[in-house]
Amino acid sequence: MEHVSERADADTWTCRIRVSGGGLPRATHLGRELKESGQGATLRGVEVEVRGWLSEEDGALWLRVQQSGERLRLAPLEKKVQWDPKGKSEQRCTPEERTAYERLRRVWRLSPQLIRVKGPLRPSPVLSPDTLEVREFGWR
User: What CATH number is given to the structural domain containing 19?
Assistant: First the structure.
């Protein structure tokens, strides 16, 4: 890892990390490292913000990551990584977050340029690409 924020965000119980070399983080590795750190924290999930190019194969929407060339299958948001400390539960998805994937499917061909996608990264079986659940996107 290149950088880890010194403190967790008090409103979401999340922290920021930057992976060396521009690759994607591996949730299984991060979870193990966090447990071994002895900090008493657990890994609920990993949310990433990546830039890349979209394509469609067999009806599925894919993102090729700009820096690493890795491919991610895109999917609708199921649940957020962010935590609600007052409610003692995961944060609820807003209507905009819940519909981000469908909105992206409708408009992506209209703007075939570099896109920024943010959302939870879900590990897939060993030989399959990971899945990025679309929580937010923008053309930049």
Answer: 2.40.50
